Amino acid sequence: SDCAVMNDAELVQQIINGNSNAFRFLVAKHQRLVLHVVGRIVQRQEDVEDICQEVFMKVYSKIGKFRGDAKLSTWIARIAYNTSISHLRKEDRGEHSYDENPKLVAAETDESAAHQPVEKEEVKRYLMQKIEELPVQYRTVLTLFHLEEFSYREIEEITGMPEGTIKSYLSRARNILKEKLEKLAISEKTNIFTEYA
User: Fold this and answer.
1) What's the distance, CA 74 to chain centroid?
2) What is the predicted pLDDT for the residue at 1?
3) How far is CA 124 from CA 85, 107, 110, 131, 146, in A?
4) pLDDT (tens digit, 9 = 90+) per residue, 17-76?
5) In sequence order, what DSSP letters do the residues of 67-85 get, joined into one string?
6) Residue 149 φ/ψ region, left for φ over 0, alpha for ψ in the -120 to 50 degree band, beta for the rest
7) 9-15, long-range: CB within 8 Å, 24+ apart, which pairs?
8) Phi-psi category of residue 92: left, alpha or beta, with phi > 0 → left and psi -120 to 50 → alpha
9) Counting runs of H as helices and runs of E as strands, what totals does the chain give?
10) CA-to-CA distance for 73 and 140, rounded, in angstroms?
11) Which residues 6+ apart lie within 8 Å of 88 measured at CB?
12) pTM for the model
């Protein structure tokens, strides 16, 4: 039977029955989601792949516990989130430490960036880089909401954060990024003026 036409419950049942194709299909379907969640939280590239594998091993071993009251993608994202956060806690180095109550990262004065002319495709790269600099919860909710398009309710299930917290993290994250982009636009204008002065 073709895995692509199965609903979550059927796919899970197939995996429980030992259908290895069904599990391979699950991994292929949710690989990007897991990579996004893990990659946003755990920023050391060399750890990301191992943690993604660990996530899918957990998914496989816990699949019998999937109750179907949430979407499978939400359930998998939650395992990815918890696995990544506990990895951060184990690391618990200054730069990777997980702070329950994130303070805003000190507004860094990137003077050098302010004087570089900016190409349009660089803006997107710049934005991604700025997202990477946000506190871990801000990065996570931005990724889940905008990149993976989970609802507030689903993000609450994934992260255990109350909906109000999620909304306030989202709006604060957006404001920080907006300010950074505005700074960028100002520096673009000054470059244009100096070029033609």
Assistant:
1) 13
2) 58
3) 27, 20, 17, 11, 14
4) 999 999 999 999 999 999 999 999 998 888 999 999 999 999 999 999 998 888 999 999
5) -SSS-HHHHHHHHHHHHHH
6) left
7) 9/68, 11/72, 12/63, 12/66, 12/68, 12/72, 15/60, 15/63
8) left
9) 9, 0
10) 15
11) 41, 42, 96, 97, 98, 136
12) 0.73
**pLDDT reported for residue 119:** 66
CA-CA distance, 147 to 154, in Å (whole number)? Answer: 14
Q: What stretches of 42-162 show up as alpha helix (H) in DSSP?
A: 45-62, 72-91, 111-114, 120-133, 136-142, 152-159
Q: Return the structure tokens found at 27.
A: 């991994």
Amino acid of residue 190: T
Q: pLDDT tens digit string along 138-168?
A: 999 999 998 889 999 999 999 999 999 999 9
Distances, alpha carbon 25 to alpha carbons 65, 67, 85, in Å: 19, 19, 26
Whole-number Å distance between alpha carbons of 71 and 17: 20
